[in-house]
Amino acid sequence: MMKFLKLKPTVGLLSIPYSLIFIFFFFIPLTLTFIISFWDYNEYSIIPDFIFENYAYIFKDCLNFEEGICVTFKTYLSTFIFCFITWFFTLIIGFFVAYFLAFYVNSITWQIVLFLLCTIPFWTSNVIRMISWIPLLGRNGLVNDFLLSTGLADAPQEWLLYSGFSIVLAFVHLYTLFMIVPIFNSMMRIDKSIIEAAYDNGANGLQILWNVIIPLCKPGIVIGSIFVITVVMGDFITIGIMGGQQIPSIGKIIYVEMSYLQLPAAAANAVILLALTLLIIWIMTKMIDIRKEL
Amino acid sequence: MKKSLTRRNMLKTSTAAIGAVAGAGLLKGFPAIHAADAPVIRYLGTAVNMGDAVQKKLFDDTGIKVKFIVKTTDEVVKTIFTQPNSFDIVDSEYFSMPKLVPSGNLLGMDTKRIKEWDNVTTAFTKGEVAGKKIGDQGTAPKKVMYLKGAKSKEFASEPTQYVTLIPTVYNADTLGIRPDLIKRPISSWAELLNPEFKGKASILNIPSIGIMDAAMVVEAMGEYKYPDKGNMTKKEIDLTMKIFTEAKKAGQFRAFWSDFNESVNLMASGEVVIQSMWSPAITAVRTKGIPCVYQPLKEGYRAWAAGFGLPSTTKGRQADICYEFINWYLSGWVGAYLNRQGYYSAVIPTAKKYMEAYEWDYWMMGKPATADIMSPEGKKLASKGEVRDGGSYEARMGGVACWNATMDENKYMVRKWNEMIAS
After folding, report:
1. Which of B218, B419, B363, B391 is nearest to B299 (CA)?
2. In angstroms, what separates the C-alpha of B290 from chain A's closest C-alpha?
3. What is the ipTM of this complex?
4. How many CB atoms lie within 10 A of CB B132?
5. B344 vs B5, which has greater pLDDT?
6. A260/B74 CB distance under 8 A
7. Which domains are assigned to chain B?
8. Which of A71, A258, A261 sits opposite B422 (nearest CB)?
9. Does the A70-293 domain belong in CATH 1.10.3720.10?
């Protein structure tokens, strides 16, 4: 607080526009969501109240494991699993793509060109992109044609599409870029002489990677991970379309509730989702202090 | 220095003046119908039935322009609740009425101002087709048609002067199939869960419509006979969802769909060979040259119906323009346009005047086409000699078993539906 007061008044002034945007378009809506999650509702209106029913409803039957785990837990579990697998693959692929771009591509022009290539998945609309997977992965798609014609499979492989596999594939395909950018950014700031020093002291390539580059890339890795995890946690379009609408997601539940004007129920779900996502991010920032590293 | 200050002041005052004028203009022009300019109607709806051709014809005939606010069925309902002044006219479905009418956000429509009211099909006004009663399970239009008064929030059981929506379009929905991949006749809703089509079936993931298709299937399988499919008890919802959850776990469904285009792609790519489907989706698959049939089934059809409503704040000139638009809509040209897409117009005699005899025979009478049948966009839908799936208007609408519905246990139903998706 003292530090803040010591700042020059102009700094305070400069922060006003962003603070206003933050307050009006983030803080107020979020507060309203939180408040409404305690309201009551009927078919056509929401009623100011202070009840815990919306939350109780979400976790109804969740402590009774006789009939298997409840929908809410099942849905979160499935979302967490997608989150973890997507995070793992985007991290591995993203790290090495960034590594290649940062250390093996020397001209800035080529770096830009290759970066643009990475953005190709974003050039078409979400729905078109999803539908385009059908001719590739579908029952009569290219992959199945190949498998059948080469005798690698006797029957079309159905798990290629509308499955957990296709969801992870679409996520990785899309969000690897979110890992590449911050990791690349971290790598570009590594002083080349540090690597040279490690090399001169007899470290081999693997040791340099593990003991020098990865520790110095940690902020980039954490930022990329936050991007990927928050996006996957809230996603319902990709899971919906690639999963053939048969695989649950929290986002989808919120969306359906909103369509049926069950706004307080949707708000309660949103608050829980937000709390869990923040918890994950909090744990990650505990592991590494981004502010210090930046 | 002083000079520049005055100049700045000048600028300030003039900007303020412009602002004031603009503001006044806004106030006057709100809601979007200008006294001097061509009248504009803000049209809230899914707009699936309002192609460019309709807008152009409307402007040529009446000088009215339409500004679309395009949303999905569920979002239309949400908009009526949350922004009742953001539109001048709404195109909504009857099954939303039990939710919408108690809110008082819609105006009772005065049937005396509708020229063709007496010619509105009896499927709406009496629940009859050709003098015979049709299925009325679910939110049948006649149940939610009449209001006790212009500002009433209650439905009247007997015909009155005021109605909830002026009917425009409706249809009888059934399952779509790929005859080339199934290679045998299909005649019952029960086939949707037939293990023969394991991994090749689909149902739509819109709970209020999907549950009705599910109920048709459960009844056709002989598992249960509902007193009213359109208003299930909690037990009945549990039963229906249990059967579908088991089928889902056994891998019966390739996918669920929630978007029109998804259903077209599932069918066209052959991922799915039998699924719930909408009439224009069948047309879209067929215009790709892929065989697809809107299969009539012995248990009957699931029907839906839509119409125009006005926000309760409508009055004066704004109301005049909206009624003029509705009267134009029912005067025949649009009716023919709708009929040619495989829907039905609410006022049949006027639509007939705008259709060629061979078109009428194919679409409405169920006779073999005597010439190639074209869509309104000029694409070929059927060749000479073909007969419409399901046949004539009387056979199709007469075979309606139930209507899209809002149930008393809607909240419970949506939750159970989500559970099935999550299972």
Report:
1. B218
2. 15
3. 0.71
4. 10
5. B344
6. yes
7. 40-170+304-353 (3.40.190.10), 173-302+364-422 (3.40.190.10)
8. A71
9. yes
